[in-house]
Amino acid sequence: MNPTTPDKQKVLETEQKLLEAMKKSDVEILDQLLHDDLLFVLPSGDVITKQMDLETHKSGNLTLQEITSSIDSIKQIDDTVVVTLSSKITGKMLEQNFEGNFRYIRVWKMFDGGLKVIAGSGVGI
After folding, report:
1. Buried b vs exposed e over 76-112: b needs ≥16 C-beta within 10 Å?
2. How far is the C-alpha of 62 from the C-alpha of 43, rounded, in Å?
3. CA 37, CA 33: separation in Å to the nearest integer?
4. What per-residue confidence (pLDDT) applies to 115?
5. 28, 30, 50, 69: least surrounded by Cβ within 10 Å?
6. pTM of the predicted model over 0.85
7. For 49-97, how does the pLDDT look when each residue is reduced to its tens digit (9 = 90+)?
8. What is the spatial distance between Cα 25 and Cα 20, in angstroms, rounded to a whole number?
9. Which residues touch 92 (CB under 8 Å, ≥6 apart)?
10. Where are the domains of the chain?
11. Is the pLDDT of residue 1 over 50?
């Protein structure tokens, strides 16, 4: 395996690190794991950037009480990995409680020995 190619275990560990950072609104870890040019399509259809996502966590506008996820598939293409997962999420957005089941796709790419999310999307299921 090429040293710039992530193995499946590294992808699983990094996905878990991302979920924990989301739950804790750990902006420092999120900043490390999200690429500066990230584009993400929310279940509402809105497109957000890394800066928008970090600001939502910093401001407290989004708080996540629980995230339960299971990986549906991991597909590796050279130094890029496409992950699909199903999640049950409970939290608050702008002081409004929400709970739902979602399917996500995240595109991870290796940069200087570390994985970063470069794109993603989520839909309610």
Report:
1. beeebbbbebebebebeeeeeeeeeebebbbbbbbee
2. 14
3. 12
4. 95
5. 28
6. yes
7. 999 999 999 998 889 999 999 999 999 999 999 999 999 999 998 889 9
8. 8
9. 62, 63, 65, 98
10. 8-124
11. no
With the CA atoms of 102, 78, 112 and 69 taken in that order, what torsion angle do they form, in degrees rounded to the nearest 10?
A: 20
- Residue 90's contacts (CB-CB under 8 Å, 6 or more residues apart) are 64, 65, 66, 97, 98, 99
Q: Which CATH number describes the domain made up of 8-124?
A: 3.10.450.50
> Structure tokens of 94?
């702008």
